[in-house]
């Protein structure tokens, strides 16, 4: 029996939390207060469907309320249950604290296989779920703000936002009741790519830290590093694509639902993604080797392994066989607690989920700010900045007595657009937090790995808030 069957995801998250809390000095009972899930609601609601009624079950957990709103995705998945939602909500609390996003954690799920329903049916079901969430105080721009997760996306968020707006027509901030909306419906540029982009920025920062790179048994930068990615969903696809196109990594392996493909000379991520869309599988992708038992590829040698699919894919059964140097956790909870201990013993450098996949919620925060301010990023200052840059260029040209090269000029002229500002804010977030975790690691001799350091950082930040609240 592997440990995912005996130790639930929630237990794994709690054990990681306890390990970090034990390494810290906290007032009695405070760790328990931070760890405890404040509220969880199970909702059962009927929907008129296909000439009858069908009952659906959904959950929303508010893990903490040390800051408001509480924030986190909603997943639509047939395997979801209450414990999974609680685990994911707890991770959201720690994630937000780690990346300095002023939210508490929340998470929701609807037990459904979205592939089995038409678009109209999904809309109907989602709107009913939104009504239930609203009725029970689990929806609102200042209270609880869902976002996309597995099985949900921009369209789902639009339906929820629209339903909320109908229920609260005078709430001027209603659009901020969910994030991950399409840009034309109150969303922000760069939200779709955000989690994958955050993984890229996190890995770039790792490779800027030569001591960490050496600790992992590697040298140099990202260029030419051999990468295996599990899951070409929104997160895995964007992370692998950006790393390949902009950092020159070699994506040697891609693990998907139907199996895994491998190519020593590298797979073109965009082409694989297109092939998967057209054929519903990765098998027979040109010039690649196919492995029916895809999960076995998690054990293939590589520099960086990026699990970007499900929780609990690295357990006490396969952890000992892993041959990557760095494990970059793009999914939520891909490694069980037991497996984590094995990876630490093996010396695999783990960049933990609660940090590495926080790009999504970080850009959600920017979207929410845009909704509350009712103005897009860059709208007020873009042309002003361009005019200022133009003056600087003119001065330089006058001083030099010659024209600045047109290419350089165009780059210098560019004022901040929304996408540039979003990426800049995200990059800064990922760089700052990486180093905060590292500092936490090095400043406490009882902390021996980056996951524990990340949890300790989150606990410290939340504990500081609680201690100020109860002065
Ligand atoms: N579902 C994403 C996550 O697990 C995004 C959450 C959000 O943007 O609120 O981090």
Give me some keywords for this one:
471 residues; alpha/beta; Rossmann fold; 2 domains; 7-stranded mixed sheet; 5-stranded mixed sheet; 12 strands; globular; binds glutamic acid
Number of domains: 2
DSSP summary, beta strand count: 12
What is the beta-strand fraction? 15-25%
* Fraction of helical residues: 40-55%
| Backbone structural class | alpha/beta
Q: Kindly state the mean pLDDT as a whole number?
A: 96
| Continuous helix count | 17
Proper CATH architecture of the largest domain: 3-Layer(aba) Sandwich
Give every kind of bound small molecule, once each.
Answer: glutamic acid
Largest sheet: 7 strands, mixed
Cα end-to-end separation: 48 Å
The CATH superfamily of the largest domain is known as NAD(P)-binding Rossmann-like Domain
The CATH class name of the largest domain reads Alpha Beta
CATH overall fold name of the largest domain: Rossmann fold
Q: In order across it, which strands form the biggest sheet?
A: 9-8-7-6-10-11-12
**Runs with pLDDT <50, length 5+?**
none
Q: What is the approximate shape?
A: globular
- Determine Rg (CA atoms, Å): 23 Å
The H/E string reads HHHEEEHEHEHHHEHEEHEEEHEHHHHHH
């Amino acid at each position: 029996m592997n440990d995912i069957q005996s130790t639930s995801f929630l237990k794994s998250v709690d054990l990681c939390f306890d390990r970090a809390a034990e390494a810290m000095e906290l007032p009695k009972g405070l760790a328990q207060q931070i760890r405890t899930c404040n509220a969880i609601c199970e909702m059962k609601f009927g929907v008129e469907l296909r000439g009858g009624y069908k009952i659906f079950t959904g959950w929303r957990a508010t893990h903490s309320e040390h800051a408001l709103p509480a924030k986190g995705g909603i997943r639509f998945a047939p395997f979801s249950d209450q414990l999974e939602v609680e685990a994911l909500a707890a991770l959201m609390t720690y994630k937000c604290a780690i990346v300095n996003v002023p939210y508490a954690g929340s998470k929701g799920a609807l037990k459904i296989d979205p592939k089995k329903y038409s678009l109209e049916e999904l809309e109907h079901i989602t709107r009913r779920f939104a009504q239930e969430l609203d009725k029970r105080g689990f929806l609102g721009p200042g209270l609880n703000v869902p976002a996309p997760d597995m099985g949900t996306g921009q369209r789902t968020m639009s339906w929820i936002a629209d339903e909320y707006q109908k229920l609260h027509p005078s709430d001027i901030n209603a659009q901020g009741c969910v994030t991950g909306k399409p840009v034309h419906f109150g969303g922000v540029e760069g939200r779709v790519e955000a989690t994958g982009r955050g993984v890229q920025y996190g890995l770039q920062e790792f490779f800027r830290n030569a001591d960490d790179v050496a600790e992992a048994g590697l040298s140099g930068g990202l260029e030419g590093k051999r990468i295996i990615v599990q899951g070409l969903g929104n997160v895995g696809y964007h992370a692998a694509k950006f790393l390949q196109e902009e950092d020159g990594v070699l994506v040697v392996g891609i693990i998907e639902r139907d199996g895994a493909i491998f190519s020593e000379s590298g797979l073109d991520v965009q082409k694989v993604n297109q092939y998967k869309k057209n054929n519903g599988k990765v098998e027979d992708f040109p010039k690649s080797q196919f492995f029916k038992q895809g999960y076995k590829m998690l054990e293939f040698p590589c520099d960086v392994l990026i699990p970007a699919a499900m929780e609990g894919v690295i357990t006490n059964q396969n952890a000992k066989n892993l041959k990557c140097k760095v494990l970059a956790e793009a999914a939520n909870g891909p490694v069980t607690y037991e497996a984590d201990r094995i990876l630490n013993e093996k010396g695999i450098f783990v960049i933990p989920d609660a940090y590495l996949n926080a790009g999504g919620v970080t850009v959600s925060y920017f979207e929410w700010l845009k909704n509350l301010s009712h103005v897009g990023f860059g709208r007020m200052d873009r042309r002003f900045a361009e005019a200022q840059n133009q003056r600087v260029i003119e001065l330089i040209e006058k001083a030099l007595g010659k024209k600045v090269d047109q290419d350089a000029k165009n780059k210098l002229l560019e004022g901040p657009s929304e996408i540039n500002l979003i990426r800049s804010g995200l990059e800064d977030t990922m760089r700052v937090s990486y180093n905060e975790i590292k500092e936490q690691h090095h400043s406490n001799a009882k902390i021996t790995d980056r996951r524990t350091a990340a949890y300790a950082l989150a606990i410290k930040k939340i504990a500081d808030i609680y201690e100020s609240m109860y002065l």
